[in-house]
Amino acid sequence: MILFTSNKLTRLLRIAANKPSAFRTGTVLKSGAVCCVQPNRNQGSVDRTSLQGSVDRTSLQGSVDRTSLQGSVDRTSLQGSVDRTSLQGSVDRTSLQDRQKQQMARGLPKHKPVSGVEHVIVVASGKGGVGKSTTAVNLALGLLANDPSRSVGLLDADVYGPSVHKLMNLQGHPELSDKNLMIPLRNYGVPCMSMGFLVEDTSPIVWRGLMVMSAVERLLRQVDWGSLDYLVVDMPPGTGDVQLSITQNIPIAGAVIVSTPQDIALLDARRGAEMFKKVNVPVLGLVQNMSVFQCPKCLHQTHIFGSDGARQLADTLGVELLGDIPLHLNIRETSDRGQPVVVSSPDSPEAEAYRKLASAVIRRLQEVNM
């Protein structure tokens, strides 16, 4: 088989960045790009030849003359029913809103399922450093541990800072199948795809937005996932282009928001939850990570980042607190070794916390999809 390397990906992304993509929001003119529109001052109208491109002629139904610029708007120039009287105050708001909704519906990309995937679960956080990737990895393994008959995949969508390959103890380049699809690397029974397979750990990923969008699209759709019951997606922190593009282009069963109890983390977690609500993605609930630290010697418990902050935020947002994950040395050490605590210490209280989280996620999925 052929290996899919970072050089090949970069070449493909540079080509894709110059082409229309389903991951770009907004409306794209089917007939070509408009360079500029130059008004013909001698005639007082828009000269079609000055468009320097192939623009659909229906968009230029009629000419705008000087009198129309002074107050009278021709109906055909607006392709609607706005006349002079409507411009003077009597706007039919209902019909205008209906037309706007129709135009917005045409402009937004359509949801297209990921081939072979039944449910997509995104794990997000408002800011970095709250344990989102560790939670995503152990959630995926917890789903599999609770029900081995289910098939679970893991996608690292954090293009700029991939870490799933490290947490899952995977390295190497994905091979290409006969259908020219990348074959995900597998460990602990979970197929994984990450940008970390395609670049060196020390190599910075210096890409503009369009290349990042194309990379995420390929990591989702140009991968032979097989048949998956659940695909857990480790999202990048924040509420940027990647989050918006993924939520607007694939059907998402639900979002899990990870936060520490610290006030500054909760502010960003709330922004993340509100973003998912705006794009009509069900928020399954919040995970309070690093909720408590227990001294390994005296067993005294200390709430280093505060207590019950995520629980209070969940109550405010009207969502559920899915689980509390402790700040424990075992979680950190097993993660650094690439042996997540759910598989390396299955009988530990920490692993039990992740399995309970997985059970809560499945229960919430069933509730929101009833």
Automatic annotation (TrEMBL):
<dbReference type="GO" id="GO:0051539">
    <property type="term" value="F:4 iron, 4 sulfur cluster binding"/>
</dbReference>
<dbReference type="GO" id="GO:0005759">
    <property type="term" value="C:mitochondrial matrix"/>
</dbReference>
<keyword id="KW-0479">Metal-binding</keyword>
<protein>
    <recommendedName>
        <fullName>Iron-sulfur cluster transfer protein NUBPL</fullName>
    </recommendedName>
</protein>
<keyword id="KW-0809">Transit peptide</keyword>
<dbReference type="GO" id="GO:0005524">
    <property type="term" value="F:ATP binding"/>
</dbReference>
<comment type="function">
    <text>Iron-sulfur cluster transfer protein involved in the assembly of the mitochondrial membrane respiratory chain NADH dehydrogenase (Complex I). May deliver one or more Fe-S clusters to complex I subunits.</text>
</comment>
<dbReference type="InterPro" id="IPR027417">
    <property type="entry name" value="P-loop_NTPase"/>
</dbReference>
<dbReference type="GO" id="GO:0032981">
    <property type="term" value="P:mitochondrial respiratory chain complex I assembly"/>
</dbReference>
<feature type="region of interest" description="Disordered">
    <location>
        <begin position="41"/>
        <end position="111"/>
    </location>
</feature>
<dbReference type="GO" id="GO:0046872">
    <property type="term" value="F:metal ion binding"/>
</dbReference>
<keyword id="KW-0411">Iron-sulfur</keyword>
<keyword id="KW-0067">ATP-binding</keyword>
<dbReference type="InterPro" id="IPR019591">
    <property type="entry name" value="Mrp/NBP35_ATP-bd"/>
</dbReference>
<dbReference type="GO" id="GO:0016226">
    <property type="term" value="P:iron-sulfur cluster assembly"/>
</dbReference>
<dbReference type="InterPro" id="IPR033756">
    <property type="entry name" value="YlxH/NBP35"/>
</dbReference>
<dbReference type="GO" id="GO:0140663">
    <property type="term" value="F:ATP-dependent FeS chaperone activity"/>
</dbReference>
<dbReference type="InterPro" id="IPR044304">
    <property type="entry name" value="NUBPL-like"/>
</dbReference>
<dbReference type="InterPro" id="IPR000808">
    <property type="entry name" value="Mrp-like_CS"/>
</dbReference>
<keyword id="KW-0408">Iron</keyword>
<feature type="compositionally biased region" description="Polar residues">
    <location>
        <begin position="41"/>
        <end position="94"/>
    </location>
</feature>
<dbReference type="Pfam" id="PF10609">
    <property type="entry name" value="ParA"/>
</dbReference>
<keyword id="KW-0004">4Fe-4S</keyword>
<comment type="similarity">
    <text>Belongs to the Mrp/NBP35 ATP-binding proteins family.</text>
</comment>
<keyword id="KW-0496">Mitochondrion</keyword>
<keyword id="KW-0547">Nucleotide-binding</keyword>
